[in-house]
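Sequence only, no structure available. Ideas?
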Amino acid sequence: MIPALLLAALAARPASADELLAHRPKTAIVDEVVELRPAAGRHFNVEAPQSCDGRRPLQVLPRRLRCQLTRPGKIPILVSVCDDKETMCRQERFTVDVRGVPRAAAKASPMLAAPKGGDLAPPGFLDNAPAEALARARRSGKLLLIDFYGIWCPPCNDLDEHAFPTPEFRAAAKGFVLVALDADARSSYAWKSRFKVGGYPTLIVADSRLREIGRVVGYRSGPALAKFLRAQEALRDEPVADAARLARAGGPQATPA
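Reply:
I predicted one. Tokens follow.
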């Protein structure tokens, strides 16, 4: 028989780092964006302190936390994790062994160096690759869905976490070329200017001539975005600019035959 006091002590034993986190990096290279995920039944407390080498993480979502590690050494990480039943919350500190040579300070701007990046982009999206997206749209005849986002933008992160993974959105998006453009990356500047983007997230459907078909500003659920995409496909031959000209001219009946 295990004594009652020992049972109580085991029950009160704090969770270890491995029990709190399902995925945490042990090594990285300088300027790498690393991702942490909580263990099953746990989540990051987005309102509690989290830090990467003493700075705020690039992104904190309930099921994902991202850090950019910009210098070599044993880099300290602090995360705050709760269980989903809200019966326990705990801070965990650990280090990541970062190797490599730092870039020159002028080239190490965290905002420009830290878009979603490669395998951290939402599934199916090209990340900060407008030229490649446009080429794919022209080859395939598909419309573009352009996600203008900021890594500092909570509703942008909510799209990544809650809307884009839904089966409704994924099914509707199969007919589109998907591209995500970081508002702070130089690769987004030309298209931000062309489409006059002023708030985030902004989702724009455009054709392969970069004529806008429609847009959504702010967060929408996956099913709502699926409905939006289907509506834009029906309007693919009526870009916004053409529709505005028709309206000014008095409607379709005013156009030459």
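The longest strand covers residues 73-83.
Hope that gets you unstuck.
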